[in-house]
Amino acid sequence: MTKAIWTICFLLMFVLVVVIGQGVISSGQTKKVVSGVKTDLPDLDSNSLQKPPQEKANAQDPKVYAKSAILIDETSFKTLYQKDSEIKVPIASTTKIMTATVVLEDYPDKMKDVVTITREMANVEGSGAQLRIGEKISVESLLKGLLIVSGNDAAYSLASYLGGKDKFVEEMNEKAVFLGLNNTFYKDPAGLDDEGYSTARDLAILASYAMRNEAFAKIVSTPEINIISEDGLVLHEFKNSNRMLRDEEQFYYPFAIGVKTGFTLDAGHCLVSSAQKDGHRLIAVILNTNENTLTASAKESRKLLDWGFSNWTW
């Protein structure tokens, strides 16, 4: 199945979810996205989706200490928990989910391209992949620096190489419209500009979409990896910023399989996470934790995912 047909299937599935009342987005958003799309695919029906999970009797909502949050079942798209999930807020480096999606979908033939890191690419503020001026590194390796260690330098390097920052951010916003993320707007490829925004619900939709890409899913589930530059001169030791993936961390979660952390002063500590247990996959989004610590987003995410697996049946 081609990527174009696969994407149409994903969007049509969201339309169906809305119709049967189990979705995480509104019908108005989805119809806007897919109107005018011509396809020979057969119409989807209720048998195309997994039966949504059911909440156990006497289950009580968890106490989530964050400004906004959501938990969805990735297969049925049913919302299991939400807290102010429609509020538009800055999302910091969770922005990089879309950055990677644009690279993987719009530039698949560029993965092996070698990028020469310029001073402008290397000298980006905030978290970095420790890229060096003059280093030669592949687009594929930059993606790993983007998603594993949340490299702002990797984000700007990718955007600069693939047409320039402004053009690339425009593509990010076009993709957001295409996916029906009507409460999302990007200002830069790294999430440094807090005038960019999204919602917990939109991020859950985007994460669900992105995790269907095998290359993306493989990278975001990687606890740590060593990357050598194409000229063999630079070694990068990448450890995942998502503490739920690393077994030496306090809030390690054995079922975690991704996805992306984020932090700025305005956005607070954020985490979009995914976990799989007994054949079922959940996606949790935690934005702006009450607690201002490096482990707060992992703590709240693990709590929410554990609650989902314990209080819902499939």
Structural summary, described in words:
It is a single chain. With 314 residues, this protein is an alpha+beta fold. The protein has 2 domains: 1-49; 50-313, Beta-lactamase (3-Layer(aba) Sandwich), CATH 3.40.710. Helix content is 34%, strand content 20%. It has 10 helices and 11 strands. The protein has helices at residues 3-19, 27-34, 96-106, 119-122, 139-147, 152-161, 165-178, 200-210, 214-220, 296-311; strands at 54-55, 66-73, 79-83, 114-116, 136-138, 224-228, 235-239, 256-264, 268-277, 280-289, 312-313. The strands form 4 sheets. Strands 3-2-10-9-8 form a 5-stranded antiparallel sheet, with helices on both faces. A hairpin with a 3-residue loop joins strand 8 (256-264) and strand 9. Helix 3 crosses helix 7 (165-178). The radius of gyration is 19 Å and the shape is globular. Mean pLDDT is 88; it is low at 15-48.
